[in-house]
Known about the structure:
- This protein is an all-alpha fold.
- It contains 12 helices and no strands.
- Helix 1 (about 1-40) runs parallel beside helix 8 and helix 2 runs antiparallel to helix 8 (about 130-155).
Amino acid sequence: MVYQRSWRMAFQAAFPATIPVLTGYLCLGMAYGLLMAANGYGPLWSVLMSAIGFGGSMQYAAVSILVTAFGPLQAFLLTLMVNARHMFYGLSMLERYKGLGWARFPLIYTLSDETFSLVSTVDPPEGVGRREFFLCISLLDYSYWVGATALGGLLGSFIMFDTTGLDFALTALFVVLFLEQWKGKEHRPAGAAGVACAVVSLVVFGPDNLVIPAMVMILAVLLGGRKLLCA
């Protein structure tokens, strides 16, 4: 009874925090499901990609890979570049997830950009366990994505229209998340440093190769100037 109550309290505390992710994932997941359907892949395939791969932006990029001649090396390098950011913010969560035992495995698996944005800034309220709270946030976000993908895939089986521009929905969500972070003055120095590193990487390495160099520069700047940036 106490165990069930602790999970109920964690869910009640976590759900309001995930509502912005719910609204974003509803649009993004449906757009992805529609894109998959438009390229000949039914709801089952899009749901399996979301449930197993759970790559967000890489899932969008994978649509073009699925409909062209498969190149293993190209797919590997593209996945590495698109998802390289996970290595950096994943490392920053080691301390926050410390001592959570078995829960670390589903927490790591379901860690996405939006979930990271929540669990790195939101603390569980008094009386709510860290493990239950973080798990509820992570699993709720995961279920939003998979559910929205299923809905988009089902709708795509019946609605046929021009899907040009749907893949921009993910970029739009990142912009919104950045603006939300920018509202807090304490986050602005780090945000400005990230933008500057991205611009430098774009100029030096070009639009096709900017992700990994930008991540390396951002990590170096944040580690080297963490006292100044966090002041």
